[in-house]
Design goal:
The protein has 166 residues and is α/β, with parallel strands linked by helices. 43% of the residues lie in helices and 12% in strands. Strand 3, helix 2 and strand 4 form a beta-alpha-beta unit. Belongs to the protein-tyrosine phosphatase family. Atypical dual-specificity phosphatase Siw14-like subfamily.
Amino acid sequence: MYVPPENFARVCEGIYRSSFPRIENFEFLKSLGLRSILCLIPEEYPIENSKFNESNGIRFYQIGLSGNKEPFVKIKPELVTEAIKILISPENQPVLLHCNRGKHRTGCIVGCIRKLQKWSHSMIFDEYRKFAYPKERPLDQQFIEMYNGHEVEDFAVQNRLLPIQW
């Protein structure tokens, strides 16, 4: 039986999101045919996850984001841009994006992707709240609203990724 990680969802063609994958999720992840996993936590990746990635030919990327927690910890926009570039690169897809719970850090990245997809703020925040419930963070929503995706758009033009198949 396949068991998806918590907060698993398809973001768009080739991009998935979830909480931290556990051993019981590995068979499900195999069924996705992943080429890459992008982890947003700064801690060392567990050995069983690393072995799973290696044995299934999955590239592993790690960008250690700090969550938006008041008053002094904030997500760095340049790290979000780096993450989105990894996610939209066809050679990395299908790709799974995850943090610990698949809520806040993952929600910020997905929210910024939605912004690049030209979603309205109300739709972006509805999706963010659905996954972050019951602990939505206003600073996450503010970050998404203020995020400037011009560098990602330039990257897409330079690498002939346009039109991005959302």
